Amino acid sequence: MVYLRATATIRESTMAGKSDKGSLTLFERELKDLAVVYEVLFVEDHPEIVERYSIRHSPNLVVDDEVVFRRQPTEDELRALFKRS
User: Fold this and answer.
1) How far is Cα 60 from Cα 8, in angstroms, rounded to an integer?
2) What is the C-alpha radius of gyration for the chain, rounded to an integer number of angstroms?
3) In sequence order, what are the beta bridge partners of 42?
4) How many Å separate Cα 57 from the centre of its chain?
């Protein structure tokens, strides 16, 4: 079995003051359903991540040090990405 380390980056609040935590809940549920080992980083707490991956919007998904999504991926896209052989 192959394990990939995934990092989901998300903003705690947007410029308009709206929370992205609903996106986080969905994102986390989908990653858990796929049994993906992951961590969530809030970009406000990790400016080095913002700089390193040129984060402008959220959410983002980083897998094995590569940004694979700069938006909320669909469940099918996540399944295809984390498909196990």
Assistant:
1) 6
2) 13
3) 10
4) 11
